[in-house]
Amino acid sequence: MDYATLIQLLDSTVRLATPLLLACLAGLFSERAGIFDIGLEGKMLAAAFFSAAVASLSGSVWIGLLAGIGASVALSALHGIASITFRGNQLISGVAINFLAAGMTVLIAQDWFKQGGRTPSLMGGARFEGITLPFADAIADVPIIGPLYSELISGHSILVYMALAAVPLTWWVLYRTRFGLRLRAVGENPAAVDTAGVSVIGLRFAAVGICGVLCGIAGAYLSTALQAGFVKDMSAGRGFIALAALIFAKWRPWYALWATLLFGLFGALETRPDVIEAVIGMKVQGQLLGALPYVMTVIILAGFVGKAIPPRAGGEPYVKER
Amino acid sequence: MDVMPKWAEVVLVPLISLLLAAVISALVILAIGEDPVAAVKLMITGALGSTYGWGYTLYYATNFIFTGLAVAIAFHARLFNIGGEGQAMLGGLGVAIACLFIPWPHWSLALIGAAVMAGLLGAAWAAVPAWLQAKRGSHIVITTIMFNFIAAALLNYVLVNLLRPKGQMDPATARFPEATNLPTLHDILAPFGIAFSKAAPANVSFVVAIAACFVLWLLIWRTRLGYEIRAYGHSESAAKYAGISPVKITMITMIISGALAGMMAINNVMGEAERLVLNSTEGAGFIGIAVALMGRSHPVGVFLAAILFGFLYQGGAELALWTSIPRELIIVIQALVILFTGALDNMVRMPLEKIFLAVRRARAPKPERKPVESAE
């Protein structure tokens, strides 16, 4: 494998890791506050559709992004009402949200565009284009550093850089602010937070809301940056891979970056069987590579390689003592 | 605890939840510019108006009975098995192996053999997450989700590389031999002089599914194991004090659950397709969740809910054929049923409990009556 191939591979790793990273951080906020969210997939899918649909109708990708975030936050609100207000089962609510998004996106797409459950292809201002960072063209010819900078680091859409910036931001919010401390506390011991006079319900709704915003960006990235338009079921299990990455990352922001980059690399390798063959000298089935994130997550969950301990109050509705 | 009489618990709450789901579905149909009344009429004639429609309704219902029972038994032990889809896929593999590599003399023997193989593989696929939950403390919901994806990848691999006949393009096994083909309801009912559509895929597996409902009812409410499962589901600590082993109950419940989900394959793989194709389960494993929730984890409820979903599936297919309503409407309805009967259960229950409390107080100022025995 030569240097150019490596850069190409890493480039697609970054592009494939971005939606996983955003969804993973979304799940991190929610689960750190004690709300399990297996509806990441559905929220991404809904956001992917609404951002593509509104971008195509309005011609502006930014309005599309807002619509996507809106759709995702609406589903988050539903999850919050079901699991926080009515103390329902968070897992079942997540399952319902996934199906709701899977069905409604096709239904609405068919009603609006009549193209068999897809949106028209996005063009021009209705899509996030790659950004050329300063000097990228100037140093492109410098050996080693040139391609690294101009092809790997530069040239992604703005959402990729936003996702990368979200990692330190998440770390800062969770570990360096009062809100973050309370948010983590509410996922470990909500009764203690309640005793301190802080609203458990308010904090959990805030966490679920942030989760919605991040999932919305992840979904918008899928349909307006990674691809040009929405197709049925385009999230294709990414929400679940993000969930796997979250466990892999042991619910920590920086680990989430590495975990999603690793899973992104698997995704990139899946499309380049020639590279795998050249590196390890044997053929690996693409399907088996696709299953690797799931297998690794099960192994991590089993505690054979370091233990992943979830937030203690996760999944439990909080009932105020009287 | 029992604020509501049993009939309200068993009939009223699910009915109101269902009604809410139906009203919102109707609004969705209105919003996409179609007539909900006409749609329901079309669904009824399409799914129940002919023996052909019934044949499809019952075929789908058979799938959903198996996966619904699988989720239901796990619910009794307070385990959430989202892995029905993967377990059913593995069951399909079991059926394919049994049918392709063993020369069965008669379909009845083949059915038993295939059901055993399907159950075994489905159970094995559920046993690993169960063991991880019981022994290593990893959350069963997450592991069963992961196992769904691993199952899909595994089946893809097996069908493309191992079981696909030479020279065939699509990833599927060869056709199963003639002797393993199950009799359809047409064949079963013909000797009794009942004319049933020949083209519909409903087959003898439907009878097996009904038998499974009965056996599961016996198991849950008439055996020591069933008692232990329910006790464990109600309170893990109480069960432990009573000498019930959490590891044992988790393992056994999930093995039964996985075996039931796997046995679905005798219907869709052996009875209908007569070969194993990619994505043969078509999401039936997930519909099992909706069915179990709506049926309140009771075999009779599961049976009725499965028939309802069978009707929705067949009716939805007819809608997609004759109107501009896409098939995905069923997924929306399924989501709403899961939402209202599962996640938003308290939204329906809380106001109802208040009403019953108010009525009871108004009627009887005497001290509390003896609470009604709860059987859930």
From TrEMBL, chain A:
Keyword vocabulary terms for this entry: Cell membrane, Membrane, Transmembrane, Transmembrane helix
Subcellular location per the Swiss-Prot or TrEMBL entry: Cell membrane
Primary localization: membrane
Pfam families registered for this protein in UniProt: BPD_transp_2 (PF02653)
Annotated transmembrane regions: 12-29, 49-79, 91-113, 158-175, 196-221, 241-267, 288-309
Membrane topology recorded in Swiss-Prot or TrEMBL: Multi-pass membrane protein
Single annotated GO MF: transmembrane transporter activity
Domain of life: Bacteria
GO cellular component, one term: plasma membrane
PANTHER family in alphabetical order: GUANOSINE ABC TRANSPORTER PERMEASE PROTEIN NUPQ (PTHR43370:SF1), SUGAR ABC TRANSPORTER INTEGRAL MEMBRANE PROTEIN-RELATED (PTHR43370)
Name the UniProt record assigns to this protein: ABC transporter permease
Lineage: Bacteria, Pseudomonadati, Pseudomonadota, Alphaproteobacteria, Rhodobacterales
Automatic annotation (TrEMBL), chain B:
Entry's transmembrane regions: 12-33, 53-75, 87-104, 110-128, 140-160, 199-220, 249-270, 302-323, 329-348
Organism: Sulfitobacter sediminilitoris
Membrane topology: Multi-pass membrane protein
Protein name: ABC transporter permease
Keyword RNA-binding: no
Key words of the record: Cell membrane, Membrane, Transmembrane, Transmembrane helix
Primary residence: membrane
Highest taxon in the source lineage: Bacteria
UniProt keyword Transmembrane helix present: yes
GO CC list: plasma membrane
Cellular location(s): Cell membrane
Molecular function terms from GO: transmembrane transporter activity
Pfam family, one: BPD_transp_2
